[in-house]
Specification:
Length: 184
């Protein structure tokens, strides 16, 4: 699923929801935003523009995903420590904050993984634009549940035009009711 995240919308919005996942995965509260090894690449790419401390990186991750991904210290600092252990970043204490800087090996890793990094940020932009901030994130789970139920029913009754029409009517009515709430 992670390899298709950047194009989930164009390739058919329902596909990721059928199995119960959101466009960016299955684990965690809303789903796993980063695939295996991707958070380290995201951090490396953000350090390419210059040294930053952990909190800056956390805020930049949130900003780049339009609020969809809110990085925790428990995710960021171990990843930064791993990058430091691998020799891809260095850290120095400055004004009470640990500042992380990309090494030459880190720059080479960013160049080597440029295509993957591009896909990560494309997916972040795409997910953020779909959910439209925390308000959208709050509606994602119930909306996905409705879509899953409709798709299960359609799959079971695709040959019965009366039931398919009934499903369309239900979804149209729900859309109209939601739009009425929006107008008030």
């Amino acid at each position: 699923m992670y390899g298709r995240c950047g194009s989930w919308w164009r390739s058919g919005m329902a596909t990721p929801f059928v199995g119960g996942g959101f466009p960016w995965g299955r684990a965690g509260r809303w789903g796993r935003f980063f695939g295996s090894g991707e958070i380290r690449l995201a951090l490396l790419s953000m350090l390419e523009s210059g040294p930053k401390h952990g909190y800056e990186l956390m805020k930049e991750l949130e900003s780049k995903s339009n609020g969809v991904y809110k990085a925790s210290a428990g995710a960021i600092y171990p990843a930064l420590q791993q990058l430091e252990d691998e020799g891809l970043v260095t850290s120095d204490q400055s004004q009470g904050k640990r500042i992380y800087t990309l090494t030459d090996a880190g720059k080479a890793e960013v160049q080597r993984e440029a295509e993957t990094i591009k896909r990560i940020w494309y997916r972040a932009q795409d997910a953020g634009s779909w959910l439209i901030g925390p308000e959208g994130a709050e509606m994602a789970r119930p909306a996905a549940a409705v879509m899953k139920a409709a798709l299960r029913a359609a799959r079971a009754h695709w040959h019965d035009s009366a039931k398919m029409n009934k499903l369309r009517e239900i979804l149209d009515r729900a859309k109209q009711e939601i739009e009425a709430v929006e107008k008030n």
